[in-house]
Structure formats: structure tokens, C-alpha cells
DNA sequence: GACAGACATCGACCTGCGTCAAGATAGACA
DNA sequence: TGTCTATCTTGACGCAGGTCGATGTCTGTC
């Protein structure tokens, strides 16, 4: 699987040479990774990820997230959808409420790509 | 020209903040970090970073980078400028040629933010 | 069955970004 | 000094993306 460009063994990643710096990225790999970064490259979505991740039990209800921003509910819903579509957030509907949870694997892979995460 | 010192220290921008999953990110912190991610959130710039980092001696000339893409030289120059302005790439002009080098601290701090790694 | 609340989707507006062609700048060399 | 080469800057175009108001869908309650 070509995903190896992203999910490189974290133990091999050293401070001096992260996967990104180890060898030239192929155009295909770059095209696959860029959307993940683009999804994170927004202040609102960055805070959403952080809010969800640091929330109790690691998951947060949309109603909680709405209150943290001066934005309308559709806008928050849109940002959550973007994060969900790239795989950074998982969705779970329980009754009337919808809960979001951070996908640690996806986030970890990105960290490995940039700097190796483990130092 | 007097506007050569546009670039900010990417290290300062990130170093202030704890990992994404530890506690909610402030709006100010998110606004500082998002531009860094946005600079990386482009397939061309992702490959440029990778090409520069994995090049001999860790630095690459613009002429080398142009050949790796089906884009015009001004477009490559534009992308390099974006990466330089957020502090992800360092610039050095020697004679006619301009060499770019990856700022490892900036990349490492981004990775720490995403992966929760403590330095 | 009808109503109310939580969340998603749709359509529209406006800003920002990637790209290119053309011109400008700076160092090297005769 | 003048010319050549390598690179950067400017201006313009088209498209993608963030935001909002209005509307739709689903679930639980009376």
C-alpha cells in the first residue's frame, strides 16, 4: 500500500530526518497528504480538533462546539464535515445528539510525516 | 529593496502552545499556527519542502527545483516565497543562484503540536 | 399524529489563492 | 561598460473555499 509514505514506523524517525526530509515525496503522495493538511489549515478547524481532543472522554457534542465560536451552526457543521471527510474526525450519532471524536491514527501519521513525532 | 525581512520565526509561533490534544487551543494560537499549515497544504509546496530537505547538503537551488515540476519558474518562485515567508524555508543567495534550506525547528514544532511529542 | 429540538444540506456572496505572461533586478564575464 | 543568465516581481484571470440565511431530515416528546 502506498500509504507507507505517511505511516512510517515512528521508531525509525529521528530528530534529524523526518519522513518528509528523508526522500523526495512523489506527486501522488503529495496529492494524498495535502488535503489532510488543508483540512487542518484553518483556525476554526484547528480549534475544533483541539476542543474535541481535549474534551471529556475524547469526544464532544456539536452543541458544545457551537458555543465556543462566534459562528453560525451551519458554519460549524460545515467545518466538522470537512474534518470528517478527510478522516481526521469520527462521527457517532446517539439519539438526537451527534458526537465527534479525533482519529488519533490520522493525526499521528501527519505528525510522523512532519517530524517523526517521537524524539 | 527594504522588504526583505518579511519572514517571521516559525519557531516562536508554535513553541508557545501545548500539543493539540492536551488542551483547547486559543483563538490567537490557532490564528498563528494555521498559516504554517496552510503553507504546507499544497501538493507542490509539500514536494518542494521534501525536495529541498532531501537534496544534497540539505539545500537546493531554484534551478534544480524547476525541473521537477511542469510549472513555470515564476510559479515555483511564488511557492518558495510562501514557504519562506512563514519561516519553513531559509533563503541564501550566492552569486547568481538562490539556495533554499528547510528550517528543521519549524517542522519539528509543527510535528510536536500534532503528535503531542514533548521536546 | 403533531410539534419541538439538533444537526445537515442548499444556494449565494465575497474573499483568497494558484497560475501564467511580461517586465524588472542583480551578479558574472568579456 | 555592455551583455547574458538566473531569479524575482507585478498584474490579471479563473476557481476554490469560508460564511451566512433559509430549508430539509431525523429523533424524541406530548
UniProtKB/TrEMBL annotation, chains A, B:
UniProtKB keywords: DNA-binding, Transcription, Transcription regulation
User: From the UniProt record, which GO molecular function terms apply?
Assistant: DNA binding; DNA-binding transcription factor activity
Where the record annotates domain HTH arsR-type, the positions are: 25-119
One Pfam family for this entry, by name?
HTH_5
**Protein name (database record):** Helix-turn-helix transcriptional regulator
InterPro entries membership: ArsR-like_HTH (IPR011991), ArsR_HTH (IPR018334), HTH_ArsR_DNA-bd_dom (IPR001845), HTH_MetalResp_TranReg (IPR051081), WH-like_DNA-bd_sf (IPR036388), WH_DNA-bd_sf (IPR036390)
Instruction: Write down the species.
Output: Nocardioides caeni
Q: Which NCBIfam families match?
A: HTH_metalloreg
Q: Where are the transmembrane segments?
A: none
Q: Which SMART domains match?
A: HTH_ARSR
Amino acid at each position: 500500500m502506498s500509504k507507507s509514505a505517511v505511516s512510517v514506523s515512528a521508531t525509525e524517525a529521528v530528530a534529524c530526518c523526518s519522513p518528509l526530509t528523508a526522500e523526495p515525496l512523489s506527486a501522488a503522495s503529495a496529492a494524498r497528504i495535502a488535503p489532510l493538511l488543508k483540512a487542518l489549515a484553518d483556525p476554526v478547524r484547528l480549534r475544533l480538533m483541539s476542543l474535541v481532543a481535549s474534551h471529556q472522554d475524547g469526544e464532544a457534542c456539536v452543541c458544545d462546539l457551537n458555543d465556543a465560536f462566534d459562528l453560525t451552526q451551519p458554519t460549524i457543521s460545515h467545518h466538522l464535515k470537512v474534518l470528517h471527510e478527510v478522516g481526521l474526525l469520527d462521527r457517532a450519532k446517539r439519539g438526537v445528539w451527534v458526537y465527534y471524536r479525533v482519529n488519533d491514527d490520522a493525526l499521528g501519521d501527519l505528525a510522523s510525516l512532519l517530524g517523526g513525532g517521537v524524539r
